[in-house]
Amino acid sequence: MKLKKHVAISDSGFLFNATTGDSYSLNPIAAEIIKLYQQGHDDQTIIEYLVDNYTVDRNTAEKDLQDFCERLIHYKLVE
After folding, report:
1. 70 in a structural domain
2. What angle do CA 31, 34, 35 make, to 5 degrees?
3. pLDDT tens across 41-75, in order?
4. Domain-located, residue 43
């Protein structure tokens, strides 16, 4: 998944869509996920990262990542 060119994220987790002027405040984990996608990691690598670094089982990590990605798609933030 890749952010659209007109979407920017700050180090503090503030996501801004320059085309629409919409802004979103991400929690720290969501900001980490965005940064991992920006680095070119795929869903499976991100799921492993979440399981290894947070108290979450694989099924929950998969569902939560899917839900997050669906929101990014809904708000037209990704290509």
Report:
1. yes
2. 85
3. 999 999 999 999 999 999 999 999 999 999 999 99
4. yes
Please count the structural domains in the chain: 1
* The model's pTM: 0.89
Residue type, position 71, single letter: R
Residue ranges making up the domain that contains 38: 7-74
Q: What is the DSSP string of the chain?
A: --B-TTEEE-TTSEEEETTT--EEEPPHHHHHHHHHHHTT--HHHHHHHHHHHSS--HHHHHHHHHHHHHHHHHTT-B-
Q: Does residue 57 form part of some domain?
A: yes
Does 1 reside within a domain? no
Q: Which two tokens stand for residue 26?
A: 């991400």
